[in-house]
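Supplementary Methods. Inverse-folding protocol.

Structures were first reduced to a discrete structure-token string of length 110. This string, shown here, constituted the complete conditioning input.
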């Protein structure tokens, strides 16, 4: 799955920056140089959803779900079947209800 940047998140997430939490509304390509976990306002790991900046879905972008963090070079997604966190490239795309979105299950689980 190739992504168009930035990724606009449905709801802001937080990342730990030094001792404090920094709010993010977008995931930028420049974030791929870092390692961080997406957190909720209480600082607990969370699952984030959003859309990329591609023209898919009438300009709204590809729907992305179950994002959990970033490592250098890729986003991390959690597969609900094997409960493993994997790079977003390990998930395909599908069309469901006319909406282009990422696969929930990783390619190993499909
Ligand atoms: Zn899986």
């Amino acid at each position: 799955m190739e992504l168009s940047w930035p990724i606009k998140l449905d709801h802001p997430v937080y990342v730990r920056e030094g001792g404090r939490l920094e709010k993010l509304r977008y995931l930028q390509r420049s974030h791929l140089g870092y390692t961080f976990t997406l957190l909720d306002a209480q600082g607990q790991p969370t699952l984030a959803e959003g859309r990329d900046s591609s023209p898919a879905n009438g300009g709204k972008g590809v729907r992305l779900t179950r994002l959990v963090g970033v490592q250098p070079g890729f986003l991390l997604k959690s597969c609900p079947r094997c409960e493993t966190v994997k790079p977003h490239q390990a998930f395909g795309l599908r069309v469901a209800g006319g909406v282009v979105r990422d696969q929930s299950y990783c390619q190993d689980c499909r």
